[in-house]
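As the next step, I needed to go through one protein, both as residues and as discrete backbone shape codes, included below for the reader:
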Amino acid sequence: MWNWFANIFQAVGTVAHGMYVTLRYWLITYKPERGTFTERFEYPEKPVPLAPRYRGFHRYDLTTCISCDQCAKACPVDCIYIGKERVEGGKGFKITGFTIDYSKCMFCALCVEPCPVDCIFMGATHDLSCYSRDGCIVDFSRLPLEVAWGKSTLNPTAVAESKVIAEPVHGGPNQ
């Protein structure tokens, strides 16, 4: 019988503590000295501070990719599409397209682990704003060289320009 009362008391105490935490954070939002997000971080002029292990939009190095499809196989939501064709007079493949659909991606980083040459990794970019769903589909092989080769971060301007380019960028290890 006492065990039953102890369980009731613990449940009420846990709910009361949770409501206290919720109320405390809700009241913090009404402090006038708190300011808006853009006042605190001066976004987009200055980058927003990120946690050290933040999983943002992918960085992809086109030069080291061997087209093994391991990242696409590991993706639980099938948002990675790899186009490849066999190299004439040699062994291996050349990449004709490496596309990630960010409307499906859940940023779990499961595609990073199986890559044998570490050509895909999570970047620190947190904003890839666009006005259409077409902007959420990023083909890394059509991006400008500094972005496609992992030397620069992914940005909305580069993605918009990549939709205009007709031929994919080449120059990987099997060329």
Q: What stands out?
A: The chain has two domains: 2-34, 57-162. The longest strand covers residues 93-101. The two ends are 77 Å apart (CA to CA). The chain has a mean pLDDT of 82.
